[in-house]
Amino acid sequence: MSDALLDVTNLTVRLPVGTELRPVLRDVSLRLEAGESLGLVGESGSGKSMTARAIDRLLPAGAEVAGTVTFDGSNVATLSGSALRRYRQQVAMVFQDPRAHVNPVRRVGDFLTEALRLNLGVAAEGARRQAVDMLDQVGIDHPDRRMRQYPHELSGGMLQRVMIASALLTKPRLLLADEPTTALDVTTQAEVMAILDELRHQFGLAMIFITHDLELAAAVCDRTAVMYAGQIVELRESERLHDDPLHPYTAALAAARPDIARTAERLLAIPGRPLSAFEAPSDECAFASRCPFVADICRSGLPPLDRIDSGASRCFRAHELRGRLSAVRS
Amino acid sequence: MTTIVPLEAVEVGEVSTRGRSPWQRLRETGVVGMGSAAVLLVAIIAALIGPYVTPSDPNLPNISLSFVGPSAGHPLGYDYQGRDVLSRLLAGAQSAMLGPLVVVALSIAAGVLLALVAAWRRGAADSVISSGLDILFAFPAILLAVLATAVFGAGLTAAALALAVAYTPYVARVLRGAALRERSRPYVAALEVQGASAMSICWRHLLPNLGALIVAQATILFGYAMVDLAAISFLGLGVQPPTANWGVMIEENQVGIVQGYPLPALSAGIAIVLVVIAVNLLGERLFERQ
Amino acid sequence: MQLRFFVRRLVMLVASLLIASFVIFGSLYLAPGNPLAALSGGRSLPPSSLHTLEARYHLDKPFFEQYWYWLSNVAHGNLGLSITLRENVSTLIASRIWTTAGLVLYASVIIVVVGIGLGIVSGLRPGALDTTALVVTAISAAIPAFVAAIVLILVFAVKLGWFPTLGNGNDLVSNIRHFTLPAVALAISSLAIVARVTRASVRAESGRDHVQTAISRGIPTRALLRRHVLRNAAIPITTITGITIASLIAVSAVVETAFSLNGLGAYLVQAAQSKDIAVVQGISLVLVAAFVVVNLLVDVAYALLDPRVTLGTRAQ
């Protein structure tokens, strides 16, 4: 029934910690059309990386998954063996720390051509030529020489470009980018982000872009989902997120970001500490303990993710607070 | 045997022993750890009082009792010369346990000293010490011990000294690395600026910080020293018969294995294996889990 | 860069061999007791004969001259004369070296096949087999070669009669039969250590982030294990196996003695007991050389396997 490329419905994941199962994702639902980009924003521990891992079936052993992930009409949970591998070839992943995510004892060329040769049966020379082309496209000089080097001979920024190149080489349909620029220094961040954005459009790729940076997500993505304590608390078109937030947490995130244009005396920090999904209460709003707008209703039960205009918010008071939230900023 | 290997493998990454009493830590090691500790305790008691509580004279031969099996009062029977095996086992515990202790103490002392000097002085002193250690690495422990007994004559002293020398580079290499890391911490520079003497910084700060690693090394080393010393005695180059020693007992009763009287040799072998397993397991439980 | 590393290691090898030879010669030179007394076998000889002996063994020369003389002879393959057997030490070593080499090689094969094999299987498959392997290796790591020797003789030679108890064989098949128990005795504790390190390395490598990357790209499991998990685990496994095998060279003395094998180690022990200085010197030198060469090979293998190593040694 779904014509979306990716359809995540009521995804709940619990991971074994010691002897108990702790929830990390709670009732996450999202849809992604082909070529569309979605930002996934939240503090560490909010479940944004776990969402990507659950989509790519990369959860640790013993994870308990409820809900469905449907990709191009087929249920991802039922895939196994070669079908699962074919699925993963269509969903490419770019990780946060390229240094750790590229095998240090294999040459850059091997890393780039591995999937082409082993999965798509491209001959060695053809794979090499494609890889050199792609390195050129991600802006790496002397691609021939780089191919023969080892990862430790490349800088972090260059290695992340290699990772992006390798993700694009197998012509996937969905890109999961898990904080691809967080580990890089600021000037490199912008370059890598620009290359990622440009090539994504050029290849017509759908993308889930994970970041803790609300503004960055808004700049790159069509829509943005804000996560808190394992739940999506707001889902919105990116351009409206900043000026017309529907959830107090989104507003607080926006306010906590330093803004070079403003000379605020001091940044507005969110009081309290972010809750992990397993600490969050199941009978009230997860943000209630830190929310400046908390009211009795917030403690009355778990708020549903209600549609508001073209977006959605998991806040009981979303309608009455609308318009007042962005004022938190100034 | 001289597989000194794990000494390097066990470059105990995070040895944390903070804030808990030894007894608490022992209890956290569970059944295996407590069992190992019990075996060790028995061996230590045997080493301390064994020679004085032997049920029979461990050195009194009686050829008519040669390889006679267990009987009342002689639960392990008699050895090839008709001596009581249990008595010899008890009497032999002393050299079997004390020898390795001396080896460990010497090599740890030398290793710590070299590591601290190398880490403190760095530069030329470090290069000299490191190259010296590299050369010592060329001598396998058993070979050095055999060489020493060839020079000074067979005996426990020469063998133990040689083993201590052979183990020193392994201790020093690991501790030097740890000491260098500690040396480069900002607090050491701060102490230097405040005018603390090198001796006092090494003694009061570096050494205590290496403490857990040193104890872990000593534990591992004890097992190796025990096996290697027993091997030297087994080769006839260590403790000399008729003095009782576990290695000697295996050597002199080896003939019983083929003749169908395995107990005298086997009991000494089992004693060694039990103590080594106990030391290894206890060390592993104490130091390799957080 | 790698060439520089190899050259440096080679120079270090020659240097440590030279110093080792000096230590071996020097310590035995300093040994208490008059070498002439050993030469004459305790008999009192007329002064003229003593002079002849002194001249023949260069005992009348200063220390460094004696060392130099000995060293240049060693370089020409002449290790002197055995005092007890009155034979050329080089000849005696040549006739025994294959026993020791064969024993160490056989044990190495057992360690590589069983130790690494067991480690990989239990590293990749947690479960009953893995738990059993952990217990068994914890015990066998603590079994000294001479204890293993008596147990193996008791069980497989005396009780079951599958293997001969003592001595070398005289053709290939009987050689293998004669060497099986000694090789197992020599291998047993090293095997356990190699298995444990292999298991730990395979576990550690399986959990690396870059393995996640490969999984996320849909790389087939076999290729994943071969190209990433085992390829990377091969670095610590090769190192531990190498140093373990190097250590067998000296321990072979114990096993040869226990099984009455006619090898270098057993001969060294006899020579040490009878103070046959030339033999002790010669065999020590050969064993030290073998030990450092194997260790050099380990370092070379390490440098070849790990591209991050250019200079420096395996210890950080």
Overview of the structural elements:
The complex is a heterotrimer of chains A (330), B (290) and C (316). Chain A is an alpha/beta fold and 330 residues long. In chain A, 33% of the residues lie in helices and 22% in strands. An eight-stranded mixed sheet of chain A has the order 6-7-8-3-9-10-12-11, sandwiched between helices. In chain A, a hairpin with a 2-residue loop joins β9 and β10. With 290 residues, chain B is mainly alpha-helical. In chain B, α5 packs antiparallel against α7 and α10 runs antiparallel to α12. Chain C has twelve helices and no strands. Chain C is flat and about 85 Å long. At the B-C interface, α1, α6, α9, α10 and α11 of B face α1, α7, α8, α10 and α11 of C.
Please give a handful of descriptors for the protein shown.
heterotrimer; A: 330 residues; alpha/beta; 12 helices; C: 316 residues; 0% strand; flat; disordered C terminus
Question: Could you give the topology of this structure?
Answer:
The complex is a heterotrimer of chains A (330), B (290) and C (316).
Chain A lengths: L5 E12 L2 E13 L4 E5 L6 H8 L8 E8 L2 E2 L5 H10 E4 L3 H4 L6 H13 L3 H14 L5 H6 L7 H14 L4 E5 L7 H18 L2 E6 L2 H7 L2 E6 L2 E7 H4 L6 H8 L50 E3 L2 E3 L4 H4 L9
Parallel strand pairs in A: 3-8, 3-9, 6-7, 7-8
Antiparallel strand pairs in A: 1-2, 1-4, 4-5, 9-10, 10-12, 11-12
Helix pairs in contact in A: 4-5, 4-7, 5-7, 7-8
Chain B lengths: L5 H4 L12 H7 L1 H20 L35 H37 L1 H14 L4 H12 L3 H28 L2 H8 L4 H37 L11 H7 L1 H6 L3 H25 L3
Helix pairs in contact in B: 3-4, 3-12, 4-5, 4-7, 4-9, 5-7, 6-7, 7-9, 9-10, 9-12, 10-12
Chain C lengths: L1 H29 L4 H6 L6 H10 L6 H13 L13 H36 L3 H13 L4 H15 L12 H35 L2 H8 L4 H38 L5 H10 L3 H29 L11
Task: Indicate the multimeric state.
Answer: heterotrimer
Note the beta-strand portion of chain B. Answer: under 5%
Largest interface: B-C, 54 and 61 residues
Question: What is the number of beta strands of chain A?
Answer: 12
| Structural class by helix and strand composition of chain B | mainly alpha
**Main β-sheet of chain A, in a few words?**
8 strands, mixed
- Please tell me what the overall shape of chain A is: globular
Share of β-strand residues of chain A? 15-25%
Mean pLDDT of chain B, rounded to whole units? 81
Taken in chain order, the helices and strands of chain B follow as HHHHHHHHHHHH
Provide the succession of SSEs of chain A: EEEHEEHEHHHHHEHEHEEHHEEH
